[in-house]
Amino acid sequence: MTIVTRFAPSPTGYLHVGHAYSASLAYQKAKGAGGRFILRMEDIDGTRCRAEFEDAIFEDLAWIGLEWEQPVRRQSEHLDDYAAVLERLFAQELIYPCFCTRKEIAAEIARSHSAPHGPDGPLYPGTCKELSADEREANFSKGLPYALRLDMSKALDKADVSSLYFEELDKGFIQCDPERFGDVVLARKETPTSYHLAVTLDDALQGVSLVVRGQDLFEATHLHRLLQHLLALPTPKYLHHGLVSDIKGRRLAKRDKSATLKDMRENGYSPEDIRKLIGFSVKY
Questions:
Q1: Please, what sign has the CA dihedral across residues 139, 140, 142, 145?
Q2: Which of 46, 81, 90, 240 qualifies as a FRET site for 192, CA 20 to 30 Å off?
Q3: CATH no. for residue 39?
């Protein structure tokens, strides 16, 4: 089977050397096996994504020697795809609307002395889970903001999670434990998809067979595998690499201007310097 990898940044800032490592590793895994490398823009966040950052991503990746297939998929241009899978989950009664504000959720959690926690923090307490159809319709009629949440208990019943695994290249098969995410948000009224839903569907639609990404997203794979099962999507293999840190051991972020590829290029670094810095001593 042809290996297909991808690099999927959000155009909310300039790329840093950690991004260069992740993109280069995905590129090398594909090209080293005669496969395909895809670039995707995860640009759902309309308040933070900017065209200048997307242009900079193209420039930076080309500068360090990467090439990718055209056209580049932009999530913002495929909202109908995400709406369609949400409809499928609605039809299976696996998602429900939540009208709680973040403040209300925080207050409910604070009242509980044993609120369970997941990878993203305290789990949603299920306040809106038992609303009647009439109550939900009344809230929709009022124009209240809402989130669409996965009903985790129903999803687990449908999936038989004990038989769900994903393959990590350097660890073998790992049994899934998506319950730790609770009733996770899959979309909001103002944001038609979440990262979890969009990335799971996009990887399937684009035929990605090996997902290369940072270790910080390892836990999310448990949830993504559940969504793949519920939506009858193929399951890729995974490789979660270590994160690149600065000299003080802190994880790099887009706000760290001195580590951005743009700044390093402007300060005299060459593509060869970047490749050596991230451990790729020869041209791809």
A1: positive
A2: 240
A3: 3.40.50.620
Residues 54 and 8 in one domain: yes
Domain containing 44 equals 1-77+245-284
Paired tokens of 120: 């993203």
Answer for the pair 191, 44: CB distance below 8 angstroms, yes or no.
yes
* CATH number reported for the structural domain that contains residue 160 in this entry: 3.90.800.10
Number of domains, the chain: 2
Instruction: Provide the token pair at 68.
Output: 């990718």
Place of tokens 């241009």: 77
Each residue's pLDDT tens digit, 102-113 = 999 999 888 877
H helical segments located in 73-123: 79-91, 102-111
CA distances to 127, 131, 228, 238 from 187, rounded to whole Å, are: 17, 18, 16, 25
> What sign does the dihedral 274-279-283-284 (CA atoms) show?
negative
Q: Mind spelling out the 3-state secondary structure of 156-168?
A: HHHHCHHHCEEEE
Q: Using a cut of 0.90, tell me whether the model's pTM lies above it.
A: yes
- Looking only at the bridges linking them, the beta strands covering 95-98 and 117-118 are unpaired
Residue 212 above 60 pLDDT?
Answer: yes
Burial profile 110-123: b = 16 or more Cβ within 10 angstroms, e = fewer:
eeeeeeeebeeebb
